[in-house]
Design brief:
Structural class: alpha/beta
Largest sheet: 8 strands, mixed
Distance between the termini: 45 Å
CATH topology of one domain: Rossmann fold
Radius of gyration: 20 Å
Helix content: 25-40%
Order of helices and strands: EHHHHEHHEHEEEEEHEHEEEEEHEHHHE
Shape: globular
CATH class of one domain: Alpha Beta
Number of strands: 16
Bound molecules: S-adenosylmethionine
């Protein structure tokens, strides 16, 4: 028997059968940069501002731009292109680092950036990156980290484990750090109701903070600032639909949980990160000029309609606009 966290780890990342080893791009979900390159361009403009602020406090040091969980490099290419086109002075000063645990994706990402004339250093985990000054950003990384799962049972809060036949069973907590989370959910979780605890997201942020000497961490993901006692049930996605059965066909469906930004802001503060901003993706993109991309896609032909629809999905409340959030945290010496 293994914890749900260990089941999720292997369902997503088993080198042969894990979801991310065999994922067919956009088959079950698409990410914002997979939807439209405007996402990466608007993000790049904000990254440029953050890099310039970092450069003011660290004028002598080389700046780094680090993408964590870069997948096949789609977003990194969009960011690099925009920096080169709109911020060439900065582009010349910045060294790119990519972090991706999937070796195949990482190789593809490096090849794509090299083909674009950008040199990168690549790592499979953040712990291997030497401390740097600059900006570390990620899109949909934190929601892809395995979570521990709690469940309400007869007035108590237990942990979910998966047995040899992929059936969920409840048992005592596997980690002492879960005790505070279980206590906080006691009395709130109904019978059979589940709640994901993102210990790994908090640990990742602590590692990330220890790598950034001066600069910013930008985390884009779906989630919210969960109020105490609010349940956060994980979900499975298959062919763009939510599946209720989390253990059905491990590796064939995406498993994910909303990011608890309240917890990340709190653990960030404990790790030396101050809150710079927290806003919806919609506000972030509109303030960064996304509407001008929609205007530029004017036209009556079907290609223009399709392009406008994609751009609007990035900011529409029922698309990605409100469920996705942008958290910026600052690290200062
Ligand atoms: C949902 S995909 C997002 C890919 C890309 N950022 C995008 O927006 O299209 C999540 C990616 O994070 C990677 N990942 C998960 N855990 C990681 C970790 N601890 N370090 C680096 N990459 C990780 C996965 O392998 C996967 O490629």
């Amino acid at each position: 028997m293994r914890s749900f966290r260990d089941f999720m780890e292997s369902a997503l990342y088993d080198p042969e059968r894990g979801y991310y080893s065999i994922r067919e791009k956009a088959a079950d979900f698409y990410t914002a940069p997979e939807l439209h390159a405007a996402f990466g361009a608007v993000l790049a403009d904000r990254l440029a501002l953050l890099l310039e602020r970092t450069a003011k406090t660290e004028p002598e040091r080389r700046l780094h731009l680090v993408e964590a969980g870069c997948g096949d490099g789609t977003l990194a290419c969009q960011v690099a292109r925009r920096l080169r086109e709109k911020h060439p002075g900065l582009a010349a000063r910045v060294s790119f680092i990519l972090i991706e645990r999937g070796r195949k994706d990482l190789t593809t990402a490096v090849r794509r950036l090299n083909a674009f004339g950008v040199n990168v250093t690549a790592y499979t985990e953040i712990a291997k990156v030497a401390p740097f000054s600059g900006v570390l950003y990620s899109n949909e990384l934190l929601d892809a980290l395995p979570v521990h799962l709690l469940e309400g049972r007869e007035g108590k809060v237990l942990e979910v484990f998966i047995d040899g036949a992929d059936r969920a069973v409840c048992g005592p907590l596997s980690r002492p750090e879960l005790a505070a989370h279980a206590a906080a959910m006691t009395g709130s979780l109904q019978e059979g109701e589940r709640h994901a605890v993102g210990l790994e997201a908090k640990a990742w942020l602590k590692d990330a903070s220890s790598r950034v000497e001066e600069g910013f961490i930008v985390s884009i993901d779906y989630g919210k600032r969960f109020a105490p006692g609010t349940a956060n049930p994980p979900r499975a996605f298959h062919r763009h639909a939510v599946e209720t059965e989390l253990t059905r066909e491990p590796g064939a469906q995406d498993l994910t949980a909303s990011v608890d930004f309240e917890a990340l802001i709190g653990s960030g503060e404990a790790a030396g990160l101050s809150l710079e901003s927290y806003e919806s993706q919609s506000k972030f993109l509109i303030e960064g000029g996304l509407l001008s991309w929609i205007e530029a896609a004017a036209g009556d032909d079907s290609a223009s309609y399709r392009e406008r629809a994609k751009l609007k999905t990035l900011i529409h409340p029922e698309g990605m606009g409100e469920v996705f959030k942008v958290l910026i945290q600052r690290k200062a010496k």
